[in-house]
Automatic annotation (TrEMBL):
<dbReference type="Pfam" id="PF13148">
    <property type="entry name" value="DUF3987"/>
</dbReference>
<dbReference type="InterPro" id="IPR014819">
    <property type="entry name" value="PriCT_2"/>
</dbReference>
<dbReference type="GO" id="GO:0016817">
    <property type="term" value="F:hydrolase activity, acting on acid anhydrides"/>
</dbReference>
<protein>
    <submittedName>
        <fullName>Primase with DUF3987 domain</fullName>
    </submittedName>
</protein>
<dbReference type="InterPro" id="IPR015330">
    <property type="entry name" value="DNA_primase/pol_bifunc_N"/>
</dbReference>
<feature type="domain" description="DNA primase/polymerase bifunctional N-terminal">
    <location>
        <begin position="5"/>
        <end position="192"/>
    </location>
</feature>
<dbReference type="InterPro" id="IPR025048">
    <property type="entry name" value="DUF3987"/>
</dbReference>
<dbReference type="Pfam" id="PF08707">
    <property type="entry name" value="PriCT_2"/>
</dbReference>
<dbReference type="Pfam" id="PF09250">
    <property type="entry name" value="Prim-Pol"/>
</dbReference>
Amino acid sequence: MLKDIKPLVEAGFSLLWLRERTKRPVEADWTNLPTLSYADLKRKYREGMNVGVRLGKPSKVDGLYLHVIDMDIRDDLYLDDAIDAIEHITGLNVSEFPTVISGSGGKSRHFYFLCDRPLHSKKLWRSDEAKKVDGKSVRCAEVELFGTGKQVALPPSIHPDTAKRYRWKEEFDERHLPEIDADQIEERIEDTERGETGSIEPLGLSLGDAEHMLEMVQPWADDRDTWLRVGMALKHEFGDDGWVLFDRWSKQGRGYDKRENRAQWKTFKTDRRSLVTMRTIAKEAREAEYEAQYDEIADEFEDLPDEEVEPVEGDDDPIDFESLKHLIRLPKHLWKPPGVLGDFVDYYMATAKVPQPQLAVLAALALGSVVCGRGFVTDRDNYSSAFFAAIAETAAGKEHIKKTIEEALVAGGAEELIGYSSYTSNAGVISALLRKPKHITITDEFGRYLMSSRKSGDSNKADEQSTLMEIFGRADGRMAPKSYSTMHKTPEQIEATEGRYVVRPALTYFGLTTPEVLYKSLGAEDVNDGFLNRFIFMQSDIDYVKKNNALPQEVPKSVSAWIREHFSAYAEGEDEIGTIGDLMDPKNPPEPEVIPFTKEASDYLDMIDERYTRKMRRMKRDGSGFQGLWGRTREKAMRLSLFIALSDRRSRIGLNHIKWASDFVEHCDDRFAQQFVTQVGRHRLDPIAETVAKKIASFGPKGVSEGVLLNRCRPFANLESRDREEVIDRLLRVHGVRRVQSKSKRGRSTAIYIAKGESDE
């Protein structure tokens, strides 16, 4: 016990002893006691005591105040909703908090964080539903902020009811404590209490998405409790638009009664904070799908003779690329990068149920990007960190990207590079980098993330995008959290805040999405602000094909050895092999090894720079407004060429390396630009621009003001302001509409829009 608490005392935790196997402090007036030193605690300790920490004002860590979010889960069904509430209020993913697993068992947790000033305890969220526990009615789930006046049990205390120990989910490190601005969290709490933003937002699913989920959990229609939960989730997600799907799905159950169905549907509410949402259904559907896939694989193994289920050797013949050649638009020489990363492509294809050569090569490049991050740099100051996005239909095998990358990192002893599924704010991104200055984040439903960011007006999501953009350009610098007001802060608090930064952040970001959702979520502003051109997009040409009976294989030894060699090649002494920690120090990483371009490669860079500039000028002349898509093509190619040369085990970047990289990036950018121009522009705004142009023409030579258009043209009026501006821009550039200034009798100037071919009078 004493050994466990010493680092916490040194960090600034205000600890106190609790009675044996209880949560009750030994001292009666514990809230008013001074903070005890380690010597005081050691002197007062008796065998069997539990230990707690006083939160808020008594506990100061680096000048900031320690707080806990208590998540009490009594019914696992409400876990996802509780997590949603926490992430909404804090702006962070729960994986970013140092976490204590309660000795009570189950899913209850304590999440630790710091604030710039002490907060009082407050109930944050609770389920509407209750259950009986030991004869008492209690909420199925609750979330509470613990601050000044509260204390919580710490590991290795023993829970009074279960006799199980509290334990840290991961070994505690005070550097991993996230900082949340007190004003921000109080504002979020107030919003939740007012009900303005406290309700759990729908996922943004289509009815088709929901129907697919229900197909996976069809037996639920026979159980009333789960039947009710499905109805609640559909009502929350779609409102009354979900009735037809609910009724159709309910017919699968015994005793279906349409009248009862309709009556029950009307009782479901859409604005309750704690109701079951489609997050719960999605989770159950995924679990059912995994079980079905597992059973299918198990059946296949049972049908095989014993000698056929031996482990597959790594050098078995890979899937024949030629059989897919007629489907794939990626040039054949780009199907495999040079060197060891090409071996990874073979491994990906040999283990993929859905053969996807385009996604295989993108996964290989992402692996190279994260492994070489921070440790290597070109003589033109390019680091390896890159952003990727894989575009493929549902059930087309995108999940194999995450699986194979993570398996390779684990095999190479670099599992610390496996990052997070997403971020929730600027603070979330920075906190993740402080903990793991070099990592890969693989985000599912990337298109929905962009759509949500665009439509919700959530400042956290907008800040997150801005932070990702900044990180892309700061691979050779430092990254720090946003600065908040230092008024009313102590010098210690200011100093602690200023000391939180990351030198040479190395984030490899990988988004997975379907084409329909992605292109619906994008607009011209996403090109103009520079977010999209930081990504390398790859759209698969293979939609739905028969799945392979691919068996698991070991990661090729060439790949795991290369990861180990290029990730851990740093040490204090000349003859020592370094460790992961060398490259995971946020402030003091080792100096990177310089990998120069050869003379031929440098000359080629100058040539392609001219080519990309011509493309941008041509797009600008054409008036599409999408010339920014090629703004970073050369830079992305240089980043890829760095780890491609290392994959080829070369100490210089040769002509073949930069040529392969530039061919690949240019192919991806060209194709994405083509899809973007035809799908994004046409799908979203061109039809509305045509409608507005016709409406303007109906006013003849006198023209019409924007105010009148808003009253007379509903599709135009329904747009957000930035989309209206884009439509007006298209009217002027594409439809030949003229804009002139007209003055009223009072001298006020108004913009008048006149159709092509009309002259203003």
